[in-house]
Amino acid sequence: MEHSLSGNQLLAALHPADVALLGEHLFTRMLLQGSVLQKENAPIEQVLFPHNGVISLMVRMSDGDSIETVTVGREGVINALAELNAPSAFTAIVQLPGRAFGISVAQFQTAMRQSEGLREVIRRYEASLLAQVQRTAACNALHPIVARFARWLLQVHDRSNGRSLQLSQDTLAQILGVRRTTITKAMSELQARGFIRYGRNRITVVDKQLLEQSACECYQAMQRPLGDDGIA
After folding, report:
1. Is the Cα dihedral 203, 208, 210, 212 positive or negative?
2. pLDDT at 193 over 90
3. Comparing C-alpha atoms, which of 132, 158, 134, 137 is closest to residue 212?
4. Residue 182 to residue 71: CA distance in whole angstroms
5. Which residue, among 39, 45, 42, 29, has the nearest Cα to 87 in the 3D structure?
6. Is residue 2 scored above 70 in pLDDT?
7. In-domain check, residue 136
8. Rounded Cα–Cα distance for residues 32 and 92 (Å)
9. Do 155 and 112 fall into the same domain?
């Protein structure tokens, strides 16, 4: 079990004694593309450590529009600071399939109380996550859509081990909070430059280095939480 936990960078950063506190309570949860792992305003019952796959944390407005506030993959965790049955502030949606390790909030809180090392790893991750949320908010407000789209593609590309991304234009428009026609134009521009290739709801990054040149500064600014130790 300990070897398989290394797929999540936060779990891999823990001391073996801390892993032992969690290990017997962990279970595997499959991440099916499009599935909702956590609904906004619904009670929080599980803490999830993605092993692979990509999850969007989305916020929905009263008019039905929504936007992604942060992307989570193997470097992170969902609901780590949640109280049992507390309402969630976001909706967690699987964008790329994979699997995660799950544990009940109650069992995770018990482990947190017993381990200073676990509390420190989670505290550092949550600080980096907050920084990403703040950066994403600024990016959405200030940067043009092509740069934002390139930044998001690179973030997901890093978390997906470089495989092609099977995502519809409607999904991408929702993630970035723009109209579908705006996403179509951005995709066409990046494909015309030879940076990506898309068709039939599938996007392939053709040249990552050139795509980085089209991305805004936020891509590099958000890279540190994806380091080898999984924490900032």
Report:
1. positive
2. yes
3. 158
4. 21
5. 42
6. no
7. no
8. 12
9. no
Residue 39 covered by a domain = yes
| Token code pair at residue 122 | 């989670």
Please check whether residues 30 and 90 belong to one and the same domain: yes
Q: What confidence score (pLDDT) does residue 232 get?
A: 40
229: which DSSP letter? T
Res 228 pLDDT > 60: no
Q: Are residues 20 and 91 in the same domain?
A: yes
More reliable by pLDDT, 160 or 32: 32
Phi (first) and psi of residue 78, to 5 degrees: -120, 130
Asked whether 70 and 133 are in contact (CB, 8 A), the reply is yes
The CATH number linked to 44 is: 2.60.120.10
Domain that holds residue 214: 142-226
Q: How many domains, the chain?
A: 2
Q: How far is CA 15 from CA 4, 143, 167, 232, in A?
A: 15, 40, 37, 17
Q: Is residue 72 located within the same domain as residue 146?
A: no
pTM over 0.70: yes
Residue that the structure tokens 């936990």 belong to? 5
Decide: helix, strand or coil at residue 204.
strand
Specify whether 18 is located in the same domain as 110.
yes
